[in-house]
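Lab channel / #folding
Pinned by the channel admin:
"Please post every new chain as: sequence first, then the structure tokens as a reply. Keep commentary short and put observations after the output so the thread stays searchable."

First post following the new format, from NK:
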Amino acid sequence: MNVKNTDKHFSEIFGPRLVSIVVLCHGAFIVILSVVDLVVLRHRHINSLSLYISLLVGLTLIYLSSMLGRRKRSAFIATAVAYAFYLGASLEGLTDILRARHRLLAVAILRTIVLPLVILLLLFINRRKFVVRSDSQGFQSAIFLSLIILFVTFIYGTLGYHILGKDGFHHRLSIPAAMHYTVDQFNLTTNQPLVSYTDKATLFSDSLTFVTVFAVLYVLIAFVQPLRARFGDQHVSREKFIELLNTQHDAISEDFFKLWPQDKQYFFDSSGKSGLAFHVHRGVALVLGGPAGKSARFKQLLSEFQYVCWGNDWRPAIIHADKSLKEIYDGLDFSMQKIGEEAVVDLYTFTSETIKDKYFRNIISRFNKQGYTFELLTPRHHQAVLARLKEVSDQWLSRGNHVERGYAMGYFSEQYMSMCEVAVARDAAGTIQAFINLVPAEFDKEEATYDLLRSSNHALGNVNDYLLVNLCQSLLESGYKRLNLGFTPLVGLDRSEDKGLISNLLSFAFANGDRFYSFSGLYRFKNKYEPKWKSRYVFYQGGVRGFTKCMNALMRTMSTTAKFRTRARP
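Reply from TO:
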């Protein structure tokens, strides 16, 4: 871990954390004393309005303290306003205490004057550290919705007071009077508070207060909600990112998943010569595979992106990356954790040597005898073909624990299949019984990557091997040198240079997790092809807790984006 960056990070968060703790303690202290004053000192001549205001401010400060710890700019503003308001109310109450020469005068001054001033001073000193933006669009929506709720509540309260006035409150209330009591439910501007005399009137008053408080709290919470990642029209950014991939000499076919599924946003450095694809989920900015474009700009790109994450209260994480940029990640205070390996087959070696193995010879012989044929289909695909592929996919999904995933891999849709070359296995009747699609990465003509490998309920066993064997031969004839068989989770952790707690836990999961997911089975399936295994890593921040939060965000993102897109398509 970089000591210089660690010290800088600590200095940037220390001030907001200190303010957060002080405000939390002060808010709790205000609430406790306000409750005591209201219950024990009710018979004394103390301004009840000041006590109610103090109680409200105390509860508000407790909520705001958590937002201050996250460096929320809106919380900083709200806290400063709340303390200014609290000081004004406290000065009014303090006048009575000074006149009576209260024996707890010093404590009262400390609580109501000195401490708020100290907190305001701390806020001023650390004002530039509260940089996290809130969701202004969400706040505007909350304001609009709350105004609708309050308008409906106003109508409800006016009619309720007017109708229930004589029987429920023993006062005949005109429309203007009913409007007044609806607006002033806490009797701040009236000398004749209403008293409920029937159950119906009590229920009405309680419901009116509940709805009003709910609308106000809804606005307050929305005021400090985190900035949401909004996936609007990303067409221009995606086209710019495609251009970077086309000009990057070492772009690989897997980089296609930075473009598809379309659940990514794109960030470019100040020169526009490098960029990255990311998705934000619950405060974690998941960067897929690392940067693209001009490698000399990668350090600047990642530094600028980290600054944006810092300003949005996002925790950055680089997912499914190799070690080529480890030095840069180390300099930005990232930790590295191996999460598995990727299998890449050398097509020439496989078709000239490995395919002669008895296992593969038997596969080819058996399927040929059953009348199976292999075909590589190129876009545009006929609608009948797409319909059959969907039938096969649906049957595959209905078996076992198969589910669609997104973000770092594709999921079945006609739009996706229409972009891809699709290898199919047909039975003797010419019906497609299994398929495998190649990701359409035009920027890589040496390494092909497949994504979906699915079979019907009526396909012969080992049809996946039949497809892959024929696909390897077909790709070699087309000029490709390698076939990427994809990522295998938790493989090769015993060969990892990191033997820490996280690696030990992941190794345990690989050894004992087959009841939930066949990690070892997937490894054995791919290892038959004698691939070269390449390590894949996650670069993250925040220790074990940060890694856990990162992986949880990744799994939820892969699941939810696929479900959303699948349901959204016609």
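NK: DSSP finds 18 helices and twelve strands in the chain.
TO: also worth noting, Confidence is low (pLDDT under 50) at residues 1-8, 42-47, 566-570.
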